[in-house]
Design a protein that fits this description.
Strand content: 25-35%
CATH topology of the largest domain: Aminopeptidase
Radius of gyration: 21 Å
Shape: globular
Largest sheet: 7 strands, mixed
Number of helices: 10
Helix content: 25-40%
Number of domains: 2
Order of helices and strands: EHHEEEHEEEHHEHHEEEHEHEEH
Number of strands: 14
CATH superfamily of the largest domain: Gcn5-related N-acetyltransferase (GNAT)
Length: 332
């Protein structure tokens, strides 16, 4: 068994492997690496493959996150796609990159429900990926999907239908219309972030995400009385459609547009053969004042199965710098 960096010509080999791996998500595809490379604060990605002879049997996508004073940290999002005995081989390659890039630490967060503790890694609650989510089974009939929702969820979908809310998808193949739709989504998103007090990226981030991942990403918009009042970005990988980003306007909230928007996105995914709809992030069970409380209540109205993943883990390359970084984050 050995590990090495894959070059650009081997990205299809990696993507085929990721497509077949039971735990892979869109974050471990070469398109995700291309998308991250668009961001000035990141700008680089690598793919490390683990081989048995000539056969690819594991590995990981790796993203660079820049820090001040020529430092950075490295991240394998929803990875690695590897058995525990492969980790030393992957880490050997990552350490070489860490030296070249002046990295302080590595973060991993494989989507495992049963925790695995890797040697030298420290558990952290500061990961980027949600530790809890709700997943709907799209193999069920539309009637069954509606039935397993909370009564309020079904009711709100019906309200939106009765009020004449219309749902449409933006298409990046038509640049002018796509730019208009994206601008509308971003305007709604700015209202949402101000109202709910959370951070968003610049408009260029969402543009690059949809255009780079397409058709693995789609922008849905809800229109009411000629005005866009809700939007959502959905990603698609393997058998799962994932609600990645969402926004709702401060106006016409009684039209219940987000409920119909997600119902239409679920039905579209179901028609395309996807088996699951991942609502991508809810607050931990029994938490009373979590900052995701509001969005969690919204998502719970759609029903689904609660799934929990292990916490992220970090491996320090520069232990003192890592201590200072964690102290800074704790004091913010």
């Amino acid at each position: 068994m050995h590990a090495r960096l894959l070059d650009k010509s081997e990205e299809e080999l990696w993507d085929n492997f990721a497509e077949s791996h039971p735990f892979s998500t869109i974050h471990q595809t070469s398109k995700w690496g291309h998308f991250q490379a668009h961001r000035p604060s990141r700008g680089k990605y690598w793919i490390i493959g683990v081989f048995e002879g000539k056969k690819l049997i594991g590995g990981s996508m790796l993203i660079r996150y820049l820090l001040p004073k020529n430092h950075c940290w490295l991240y394998t999002p929803r990875g690695p796609l590897a058995r525990p005995e492969m980790m030393p081989h992957i880490l050997e390659q990552i350490k070489k990159i860490a030296t070249e890039e002046n990295a302080i630490f590595l973060r991993i967060d494989p989507p495992l429900q049963k925790a695995i503790n890797y040697d030298g890694f420290k558990t952290t609650s500061k990961g980027h990926q949600p530790e809890h989510t709700l997943i709907l089974d799209l193999d069920a009939s539309e009637e069954a999907l509606l039935k397993q929702m909370k009564q309020k969820g079904r009711y709100n979908i019906k309200i939106a239908e009765n009020k004449g809310v219309k749902i449409h998808k933006a298409n990046p193949k038509f640049p002018n219309k796509f730019a208009y739709d994206l601008g509308k989504f971003y305007h709604i998103l700015q209202q949402t972030t101000k109202r709910d007090r959370f951070h968003s990226h610049g408009q260029g981030f969402y543009k690059a995400m949809i255009e780079t991942l397409y058709p693995g990403a789609a922008l849905y918009l809800a229109n009411y009385e000629g005005e866009e009042i809700a939007g959502a970005i959905i990603t698609y990988h393997k058998d799962t459609a994932t609600y990645y980003y969402g926004a709702s306007s401060d106006t016409h909230r009684n039209a219940m547009a987000p409920y119909l928007l997600h119902w239409e996105a679920m039905k579209d995914a179901k028609k395309k053969g996807f088996k699951y709809y991942d609502l991508f992030g809810i607050s931990p069970p029994h938490s009373k004042n979590h900052h995701w409380k509001g969005v969690t209540e919204f998502k719970k109205k759609f029903g689904g199965t609660h799934v929990s993943y292990q916490k992220a883990q970090e491996y320090p390359f520069k232990k003192f710098m890592y201590f200072l970084y964690r102290l800074y984050k704790a004091l913010r």
